[in-house]
Design brief:
5 helices; 9-stranded mixed β-barrel; alpha+beta; 292 residues
Length: 292
């Protein structure tokens, strides 16, 4: 009798878990299904607003559009880096490094794009994209002493200390820098430096030095919106600060069951795509082969 009662209890618990909407379904960013729309409406009705609560998955962030007819763009996408704000003039060193970078990704401007076999984009080797190139769709996770940004692109993580510490001067550079954050009113302020200079600032190959500093101001004006103002200062590479346009991100609903996609750069797959698609599209027949 006792075993029978226990079995019924287990059955009811399992039934309850797998009958709940949150457990039965998850939603990826950009999902436009009717089920997701219904779940999003129900989630939004229960959503509470706290300007200091940045948790959740945020998508968007294009900022101001690139000027129409810009001859550098061609058939590529507008550059989302810093909301489309053009870079300041480069130093001699910065221009030398910029000219040495050979982009091949679809996001790069046609005037700079080459076939992957002739390019040197770190993306082609599945190197980390670095920051802020990786800033597209991301999840914010807050703990008492640290805020984490988890990026949809390759699932890399940026750690932002919020426990009052400062950045030591003798740290080795990292792909996602060394970051500290604090609140000023309802604005979350992030300052960072010590970025690995192998990464590019966007798919067009804009360079930076290890001493690059990034100042960010995040604002959360309503429950569904996250705004970002970013300024890059790198005297070795640019003659003045690169001030970005405001970028706006939208919270992905339902908040409780939205998840990031597992979008990971796999070296073998990247190389196969280069030889089977990208090189051929770029006119490099020598380094191309059909995909079976």
């Amino acid at each position: 009798m006792r075993d029978r009662i226990f079995s019924v209890f287990v059955f009811l618990v399992v039934l309850a878990v797998f009958s709940s909407g949150a457990a039965a379904q998850v939603y990826l960013p950009g999902d436009k299904s009717d089920a997701r729309k219904k779940a999003a409406e129900e989630s939004k009705a229960k959503l509470t607003y706290d300007p200091h609560d940045l948790s959740g998955i945020w998508r968007g962030g294009q900022g101001a559009p690139q000027p129409k007819g810009d001859p550098r763009i061609g058939d590529a996408h507008a550059d989302p880096l810093l909301g489309g704000a053009p870079p300041p003039p480069m130093t001699a060193l910065g221009l030398e490094r910029f000219n040495a970078n050979k982009p091949s990704a679809a996001e790069s401007w046609q005037s700079r794009r080459v076939a992957p076999a002739q390019g040197n984009d770190p993306l082609g080797n599945c190197d980390p994209l670095g920051y802020p190139r990786d800033l597209g769709t991301f999840q914010m996770v807050q703990t008492p002493g640290t805020t984490f940004q988890i990026f949809n692109e390759y699932r890399h993580v940026r750690e932002i200390w919020t426990d009052g510490r400062t950045i030591p001067a003798d740290l080795d550079p990292r792909w996602y820098g060394w970051n500290v954050g604090h609140w000023e009113g309802n604005n979350f302020i992030v300052d960072s430096t010590n970025y690995d200079d192998r990464s590019w600032l966007g798919g067009n190959g804009y360079p930076h030095s290890e001493d690059m500093k990034i100042h960010e101001v995040y604002a959360h004006p309503d429950a569904m919106t996250l705004e970002l103002d970013m300024t890059i200062t790198d005297p070795q590479t640019y003659t003045k600060p690169w001030v970005g346009n405001k970028r706006k991100f939208t919270l992905q609903l339902p908040k409780e069951s939205s998840v990031l996609d597992e979008y990971i750069c796999v070296p073998s797959e990247e190389q196969s795509f280069d030889t089977g698609v990208r090189n051929l599209a770029g006119g490099d027949v020598e380094h191309s082969r059909p995909i079976h």
